[in-house]
Amino acid sequence: MNPITTLFRHLIAHRRHRSWAFLPVLFCLSHNGAQAEGLTPPEVLIGSTEGFLEFKVEEYLQNSGIEGRYEIQVSRLDPRLRLATCDRDLTVSLESPAQPVGRVTVKVRCEGSTPWSVFVPAQVRLFRNVIVAARPMRKGEELSSRDYNLVERDVGLLSQGYLTAPSQAEGYKLTRPVLVDQILTPTHVEMAEVVHKGDQVVISAGSSTVQVKMPGEALSAGAIGDQIRVRNLNSKRVVKARVTGPGQVEVAM
């Protein structure tokens, strides 16, 4: 069975009290006022939009492996809107943006004998735990577990990005000052240096069968993965080496 179909049926089973995007047109006829005038009730457009967005958000969370809760609010429609009752199932699609988070626009259209289309704005709030500063900090400070908290926020509002896991903060240093309760973004942090200028380091070189280690001195600082200049204390040669850990560097053979 198609997994999307299965997911959609699961959503329908849990939200039968709402109007859904793919309900038959007989649902429209249950609204007496609209039935008399042959018009599509606003409740059908709102319910179709909300149901479609629930499906899209659930699909997005499942495909992205994201954990979070969400709220959907469909904007009020213009009361002057008068659309003919559709003699086919309504078609609903996400007009913008690419992901169903934040301010979204949904296109609802009828492809029946009296075709029409309408754009319905909505707000999808996706709440996730993000990392915020537990205290004011200066540029260059290294983050530890006491320096941040995980707090639920609407990530649809965080256009600059955000951090969601301790592994994205601990062992990193700040690239700029932050205030208490400020949300940390990827641009706020960079890998902290584990080797500093003047440190005594172990230089490793070799292949899968032969490994050679020798003492060295770091001539520049670096984080894990950085290339730095190192002086071999035995030969006095200066070489470029990759930082592999605190006090550890590696040169290519």
Automatic annotation (TrEMBL):
Gene3D superfamilies: 2.30.30.760, Antifreeze-like/N-acetylneuraminic acid synthase C-terminal domain. InterPro entries: Flagellar_FlgA (IPR039246), FlgA_N (IPR041231), SAF (IPR013974), SAF_FlgA (IPR017585). Residues 128-190 form the SAF domain. GO terms for cellular component: periplasmic space. Its main location: periplasm. It is found in: Periplasm. Pfam families: ChapFlgA (PF13144), ChapFlgA_N (PF17656). GO terms for biological process: bacterial-type flagellum assembly. SMART domains: SAF (SM00858). Keywords: Cell projection, Cilium, Flagellum, Periplasm, Signal. Involved in the assembly process of the P-ring formation. It may associate with FlgF on the rod constituting a structure essential for the P-ring assembly or may act as a modulator protein for the P-ring assembly. PANTHER family: FLAGELLA BASAL BODY P-RING FORMATION PROTEIN FLGA (PTHR36307). Belongs to the FlgA family. This is Flagella basal body P-ring formation protein FlgA. The gene is flgA.
